[in-house]
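TA notes. Do not distribute before section.
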Amino acid sequence: MWVISRDDLENILSMEEIIEAVEGAFVDYAGGRWTIPPRTHFNLPGGVVLYMPSFLRPGEGAGGILGAKLVSVFPGNPERGLPLIHGLYLLYDSTTGSPVALMDGIYLTGARTGAASAVATKYLSRKNSKAMGIIGTGVQAGFQLMAILAVRGIKACYLFDKIEERARSFVQDYSDKLKVHLEVLSSPDEVVARSDVLVTATTSPVPVFSGSNIREGTHLNLIGAFTPETREVDSETIKKACLFVDSYEGALSEAGDLLIAMQEGIISRDDIRGELSELVTGKKPGRVTEEEITLFKSVGFAIEDAVVARLAYKRARERGIGTQVEL
């Protein structure tokens, strides 16, 4: 079995090929090739552990995938100097069930989440979008920035974090790596008002900005909240936007941003225009006008992890990167 570390993943994967793999996963999902059991939530004092298995049936000229991710999310960890998320991904041979690779799940989660936002941004944002905003500059923020830069010609990215030093550290970390202007602003509403593409990547259980500040033509990617009781945006934002999700099943069971607005009678199930598989296959239209506000709500989808894990395993074996172990 191959053990693939975070450093290994960074060395063998490019964001462009991760985005391509994730988009392909949604094409296969539209074709009915995936089996995805509901995500298991194991709630604990101070956090939650999630179990996310999936299986892709072999298709014409294409192999299958079998794997599962185990990830923990403990919101108090950053105050302890620890990552918010810990995770592992176990990839199996889809024919025999033999384990073939174990890899870091933190990088995998960040990369696939960024890639899903990039796919949504590709289909839903205005093609001439130049300004990006990120609210919440933790681990996910860097992946979101790199992924969206791969699909749109972003020139400036505006940042806000409740811990200002974290936002300024983000600027130091990425200003030399990426050819984009990075600027920390004093409030989330200021970020919203200046953004063509906006990402919320926080652990906040309540809305982090006012929907009244969203400009016409903005596209939003909401990636932080993943329980029915928590949300990053208010009902005004939800009411204004054309709504898309990674999957109907996941969103209708976990996406508090949408579920709370439904409970308030602001929207109904029918107001969700489509899921990502319908966008990438053309079954549902994306952006219709330059003025409409579009919103992609992601709670995470196991097929995204699986295709990136398969890609990582393939690249690791091709390049002889990683550690082989006998169990």
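Switch to the second chain here.
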Amino acid sequence: ISVASHTNWQNTIANANKRKIFAEDLAKLAEGYDGVELDLEWMDGTQTNLGLLTEEIRKALPADKTVMVSCHAYGAYRFPHKHMDKADGFTFQQYGPQKTWFSFANFESSYNNFVNYGFSKDKIYLSYATTTSGPYNESEQQTGAAITGWRNLISEDSYTPSTEMGFRRGAYNGNYYYYQSPEQVYRRAKFVVDNGLKGIFYWDMGND
């Protein structure tokens, strides 16, 4: 279920009465589902109201429904500690369109930030993208924010992706693209298993 954004939505969730209305309405909509997930974009800095909203949703939902919260890997993962017990899990967005997010080293360091901040391992879902970053020119300058899917490039049979970072010179507009190679998908999944985390998810960037 997607709730469309609106101007000053941050002020909406800052209002206690509106948080309660939203949570109760969401509980009704979720009757035929396993649970709900909050994915509020660009909540950098304090996330006090996100924690309060999560708490309100937990109160409104039946005990057998799950409450998930999606966090960005860069700074905006600072969910309030005192509300962490109200969420059943946290999905961390560790993918593009910037090329840095396709690095395994960045994936690992992001995870360390989550744990050091205080997220419980049994509530952490890490992630990867199956398609590509934005386009980069020969000087490694990003030439646009548009995300291009596998369906539009990476078709040469001779290409072998690296373990650390899938990379090729695309025939698509003559740009470079980064993407999660099959080897790195395996490494990320193994990392989740080896560290006893809750799970992993992916997003088809450009293909959804």
